Amino acid sequence: MTTPPAPQQPPLYLSTTFDVPGYRIARPLGLVWGTLVRSVGFAKGLTGGFKSLRAGEVTEYTDVVNTARGHAVERLTEHARSMGANAIVGVRFESSEVADGLAEILAYGTAVILEPLPTD
């Protein structure tokens, strides 16, 4: 017996600005966030630590941060969908070290309902 696939949800619009061309904010729903605390891991930390001794990008850390931001955005959009939003405006990211080797990645913004502007 196979399970039917879950219905696809329409994409949620994310913007770093508060104005969305062609739309108006019909209703602000409130603050939404997605957070993730991530460890680099021993192997990547060791490799990255050695690479940080020389100039240039430390790709092990870049990969960890990019993956963590992606997960934070997933949680951000889940939070907004639970409020009935179809968009998030004013999206921002913050990161901080919460303990030795642990970084918090926070994505936040304002959940809103957008409506298309009338066309003449």
From TrEMBL:
<comment type="similarity">
    <text>Belongs to the UPF0145 family.</text>
</comment>
<dbReference type="InterPro" id="IPR002765">
    <property type="entry name" value="UPF0145_YbjQ-like"/>
</dbReference>
<protein>
    <recommendedName>
        <fullName>UPF0145 protein SAMN04489750_1972</fullName>
    </recommendedName>
</protein>
<dbReference type="Pfam" id="PF01906">
    <property type="entry name" value="YbjQ_1"/>
</dbReference>
<dbReference type="InterPro" id="IPR035439">
    <property type="entry name" value="UPF0145_dom_sf"/>
</dbReference>
